[in-house]
Amino acid sequence: MATLTRQDLNFGQVVADILCEFLEVAIHLILYVREVYPSGIFQKRKKYNVPVQMSCHPELNQYIQDTLHCVKPLIEKNEAEKVVVVIMDKEHHPVERFVFEISQPPLLSISSETLLSHVEQLLRAVILKISVCDAVLDNNPPGCTFTVLVHTREAAARNMEKVQVIKDFPWIVADEQEVHMEEAKLIPLKTMTSDILKMQLYVEEKTQKT
Amino acid sequence: MSRDGWRKKASEDDGWGGRGGYMAAKISKLEEQFQKDAPREKQKEGTSSCIFSGVAIYVNGYTVPSADELRRLMMLHGGQFHVYYTHSKTTHIIATNLPNNKIQALRGEKVVRPEWITDSIKAGRQLSYIQYQLYTKQKCLSFAGVCAQGGQDPLFSHGPPKPSPSHPKSDSIKPSHTQTLSKEVLKSTQANFTDRTNHQLDVRLNGSYSIISEEDVERPRVNGIHDGDDDVNACALLPRGSQDTLLTNGYVHPVNGALKPQDSVSFAEHRPHVVDTGSHQSHLPQAGCRDREEPSCSSAGSKANSHQSSLISTASPAKKPDPHNMQKDLHPEPTSNPGTSAATQKSNLQDQTRVRLNGSYHVTPNSSILANSSNQPGSSTAQGAEAGIISEFFSHSRLHHISTWRNEFSEYVNALQSRRRAAGGAVFSGKEKLKKIKANCSSGSLMAAPQVRQSCILHVDMDCFFVSVGIRHRPDLIGKPVAVTSNRGPGRVPQRPGANPQLEFQYYQRKQKQYRKEKTDDDLEMTPSPQFDEGPSNGVDLDLAALSMAEIASCSYEARQAGVRNGMFFGRAKQLCPDLQSVPYDFQAYKEVALTMYETLASYTHNIEALSCDEALLDASALLVELGVTPDDLAQSIREDIKEKTGCSASVGMGSNILLARMATRKAKPNGQYFLRSEEVDDFIRDQPVSSLPGVGRSMSSKLTSLGVSTCGDLQQLSMSRLQREFGPRTGQTLFRFCRGLDDRPVRSEKERKSVSAEMNYNIRFTQVEEAESFLTNLSMEVQKRLEGAGLRGRRVTLKVMMRKAGAPIEPAKYGGHGICDNFARSVLLAQPTDDGQLIAAEAIKLFHAMKLHVKDMRGVGLQVQQLEGPHADPSGQGPSRGRSIKDLLLAKQPARSPRKDPLAQDGLTSPSSSRAFSSNQERVTPPSSPPSTISDPMPGTSKGDFHHPRTPNHVRASLNISIEVPSPSQVDPSVLEALPVDIRKQVEQSWRHREEQPSTSYHLPSPPRTSSSPPAPSFGTLVLQLPDQPGQPCTTGIILELPDFSQVDPDVFAALPRELQEELCSAYRNKANAQAQGTTVEQKNTFPQLKQPAVGKLKHRYKKRNASPAKKGPSPLKKLFPGNSPAKSSPSKILPLPLKQQGLKTENVQCPSSPSTDVPKTLSKLNPRPVPTLAGAYEFSDIRTLLREWVTTISEPMEEDILQVVKYCTELVDDKDLEKLDLVIKYMKRLMQQSSESVWSMAFDFILDNVQVVVQQTYGSTLKIT
């Protein structure tokens, strides 16, 4: 049984690839489910063997891709603690925060056989959960926008300044306004635990959205 | 003392090894001496006889004539005198007064007053000792055995009745029997005479019955014939005996049988039919059946006995019969063989008797062993089931004596006060005296009063009370190590079979490691289970197994210096301190002295709280101010008074509160006084061990030790919140205060009793469930007696059972003791307070069955009645009236009784003449405003002042149950109602009535703020129609909660789903719809929809179930599932689920995306260093859910620790970043608990949720949204 450890070169990358791929699907789906963009720009696709919605708007897609591209190095180094999709109202006050809390097991060995299919099952569960999350969330006010935040561990943010993955696409420190949400209610959506990563998705929802 | 020390000691050759040890040598030497002296004495006296040939007496305690004189008399008249009691050789014990312990131990022995000897000599013959028995109650059962030696052998009983010449002495003997027996004896003595053979015979008898059975064959029949006239004899000749049976079935006295063989036989045989109360019938025949192999017999009862008699009749002749025992019956025999080593033969005979006894009883499996060990101590174990044994036990139990005294003295103090009130004042002689002294000496000096302005409590405690009382007329013992104990011998007793002292010792040693604590120096410290206390220090070892296990009730300070402690076993103490003198109990004297002490105290003030027979608290604050004396002066005066009047010394501790006064006493002892000044308190208390605090027992001190706390100073370092977390809010607070010397308990001269109980953990050996039941009934009667004595009635009945710990030896090292036990307790709340023994018994038996225990392993049973209400229950909310006196109580009792006798009377509307009935109705009708009439203080010893609080919520809840749980009349199937027992039906109907009156009661519940703190009392006794388990339903609803509205499901998405998924979703939505419908009905009607269409059988079943396992306080499912009870303790690897199960889950997962079950790659999670959060070992959500459901549905009152477990688990989930599971758990609990019939559960849920939200808030900055 081949075992991989974090010390193996490609290990972090493997995890980051999987996770970023998933995040991309998730973000699209969130934007669709939460009606941040009109449903017309979304197309039905199939991912993880379940139907998902994906935007066909090239700029939006590009933005999402770039963002995730920048998140990836952090994930590779296990420096990203949370990836947050923030949905903000017109005044740029967050009304919902989809928090992907990521933690990777510090030390483990993986058996190659169970890895992918199993993780895929777990990710599918999360996706499905997202697709039904509007049942537990209040409707958003019209005219919402979104942004993606990354909570990094320790000093990762400083290092990031030095290594700009994509030119002209730098990370900036988030406004307090964008992060802080008053009287938030926490709604856990899904927790997945696999041998390569442990991730939980929860929504923080503003009590009064309007 | 370490075990090694003992072993060394044991192995050291004392030089007597060759002679069977020092004691054996000494005894035989004494015997020789006696034999040598005898002729000399005879010569001197001139007159001599052989009246007492075969009799060996042992004089116990003080007698008239003295022991020396008795010894001389025995020499003169052919008897034996034993300086040391030897069970096997001594035939009679001469005593005028014996302590209870001794009586218990000697149950099988002939304890006779000395007059027997003198009168016998006067009469020139050995009189029947029966009239001289010290305790007339000793006897009975053993008859079965001894009888057998007598005439009952049918083979011979048909011989021609020829009056034996030896007869004139014993008037009651039937000639024919004597004849036959002597014949038989002669016959068998010819056959085998030596001891050796006897021994073999013993074994054979007990080991294989086949040999005897040839004789047996005819017996039953013949016995049957005989029964008739024997019966008459039994009744006619032994009237006293038969009367006594009712009381003392368990008590054994073989000699009776020896003297009147035929009587005893018939007596034993017929008791089951004629005399016995019935508890017997079951086991006597049973034992017989077990004994014998021939199945065909007339009546079981006679069969048993006949068999026994055959056993014995073959056995006894084989040896030379005990010359005394058999004297009357076998006159020819002893006279023909006088002077041969009677002692050894006697021993054999007695063995036999014992074997039989046990055989006829219940220890049958042991009998062969018993026979072989020639030294079986005491008598046959009395059976717990015996009718009357309970009152017997309690009338002799010294603990019981002492505990009743406390009440007596409390009442005495109460009476004093009421007398004073009545007289408008009282004469305080002591006070006056002190005043005079004060006046004399302080005439010139200035008044010393000012500093005493503060309150001052005196704690008066007699110094080693029992000892000082015991030796007050024996100046020779002053200054010597003295112990009060029942054992007077050398401190050795033979080891009993089945007992395994080593094992117990090891167990106690282990325990001791946990509970190593300072022994307190308290004189009267007699714990109910001294084995547990003193087991360790008793150091049972191979050799020590033979040490006496009689406990030392009290020992002098000289003995304490040698390491002897109260509660220690005497044998062990004797080893520690060879000079140790033992003094018998003298209850009368204790009582006198105690009363004198209280009188003395009362001559100073009436603010006395009686703590026990030898200690009391005085609130001297006012007195000191009035007299203007210092506490020291007062204490000095009191001590002098007590010394003068009682001849015993007392120590006095003084402090500003009870706690400090008690602690000061510790320092004052012995025979001193100590005033703990408030400025010294801090320094003083810092060094006190925590165990000296009241309420800190073994378990708490061990817990404290684990926290690194050994002294009060250490304890002061812990914060209040920490303590409350560890020990619960109330106890935590009390500890917090105590360790700072703070104590606000008042000296309460009038004490409210909190519970009335009766417990017995000695000699409990059941073989049948019926025995246990009848025992419980008897115990209930005892409780009833006590309740009536106290004029109280209680609502909560708690059954406590001690069960032999698995693996513990069958026979404990202490004879008749309980050995190593597990304790179980269950309680039930009655609808009405009661003192009716039958009712209590019924509840107790129900509880007993619900516990599903193995009767044979029962070692102790206790019944406790709590939540007491006096007949004075005061509806105005004043609680127990402070000014209540005993007299009031007595007056009030009369009218109050009448309504109680008829429980239905209470169902009627308030009868104005009876405050009792009124208040009980009151409680039910208007629960929230109903006043607490009595208290159940959760922690004894903590502030008693505010005892109302804990009760209030209980009341509310109890009444709430009725209104909530009973469905409205329209929803109840009338046939179901019909099928209910009358009382339940009444209750249901009554609750309907109440509901009409107060429809909204249940909703405006002031949520008691203390839910979390004190585990609220469960409310039983009301009609609980539990939500039946609905497998699957909770599960589906659990999923539903996550589902979006069906309308919101994107049809496209839905269509794109695989087919299985679609189906899954559809069914989920259907379920959701159902559940919502149900939910609404629940909300709207506040009833359980399940009740709408219950079949009669179903409801019955439910009712039955409830009866069988009424909501219990017992082990909660959380505990059951995981004995360790602490998830933290468990290693995570242990609780990893089985891979097989996961496989199933996984597939399920695929099919059901909305199912939240977590999937973990099990193969790898082992390697995950992070411990998985578990609840009582459960890890999978489904398990958690099952656990929670079981918890909520089976238990009516969540226990605090369980709630905390759940909170802890939830917190761990947060830490583990498993919010989803947390969410599911919370939601599941919400649904379960808020739907639960008990409002306690809602409160429990609120408490859990609050705690979890705090944690989530801290971690995530926001709180969970609970929908």
Helicity range of the residues of chain A?
25-40%
**Strand-residue fraction of chain B?**
5-15%
Reported for the largest beta sheet of chain A, the result is: 5 strands, antiparallel
Quaternary assembly = heterodimer
Which spans of chain B have pLDDT < 50 for at least 5 consecutive residues? 1-12, 137-387, 443-452, 515-545, 873-967, 998-1042, 1077-1117, 1119-1169
- Give the termini distance of chain B in whole angstroms: 63 Å
Please count the helical segments of chain A: 5
Poorly predicted runs of chain A are: none
Mean pLDDT of chain A: 80
Largest interface: A-B, 46 and 43 residues
- Please give the order of strands in the largest beta sheet of chain A: 7-4-5-9-8
Classification by helices and strands of chain A = alpha+beta
Domain HORMA (chain A): 13-203
Subcellular location (chain A): Nucleus
GO cellular component, one term (chain A): zeta DNA polymerase complex
InterPro entries (chain A): HORMA_dom, HORMA_dom_sf, Mad2-like
Strand-helix topology:
The complex is a heterodimer of chains A (210) and B (1267).
Chain A: E1 3-4, H1 9-33, E2 42-47, E3 50-55, H2 58-76, E4 80-88, E5 94-103, E6 110-111, H3 112-131, E7 145-152, H4 156-162, H5 176-179, E8 184-193, E9 198-206
Antiparallel strand pairs in A: 1-6, 2-3, 4-5, 4-7, 5-9, 8-9
Chain B: H1 3-11, H2 22-45, E1 56-59, H3 67-76, E2 80-82, E3 92-94, H4 100-105, E4 110-112, H5 115-123, H6 142-149, H7 154-157, H8 175-191, H9 195-207, H10 210-216, H11 219-237, H12 239-248, H13 254-259, H14 261-275, H15 279-291, H16 300-318, H17 332-336, H18 342-360, H19 367-372, H20 389-396, H21 398-423, H22 429-442, E5 457-462, H23 465-470, E6 482-485, H24 501-514, H25 530-538, E7 552-555, H26 557-561, H27 570-576, E8 581-583, H28 587-602, E9 608-610, E10 615-619, H29 621-627, H30 631-646, E11 650-655, H31 658-668, E12 673-675, H32 681-686, H33 698-706, H34 712-717, H35 720-727, H36 729-738, E13 755-760, H37 769-790, E14 793-804, E15 821-834, H38 837-851, E16 858-869, H39 886-901, H40 915-925, H41 948-965, H42 974-979, H43 982-997, H44 1033-1040, H45 1051-1056, H46 1059-1085, H47 1096-1108, H48 1117-1121, H49 1139-1151, H50 1162-1165, H51 1181-1194, H52 1200-1215, H53 1219-1235, H54 1239-1260, E17 1263-1264
Parallel strand pairs in B: 1-2, 1-3, 3-4, 6-8, 11-12
Antiparallel strand pairs in B: 5-10, 5-11, 6-7, 9-10, 13-16, 14-15, 14-16
Helix pairs in contact in B: 2-3, 6-14, 6-16, 6-18, 8-16, 9-16, 9-18, 10-16, 11-14, 11-16, 14-16, 15-16, 15-37, 16-18, 21-28, 24-25, 28-30, 35-36, 37-38, 44-46, 51-53, 52-54, 53-54
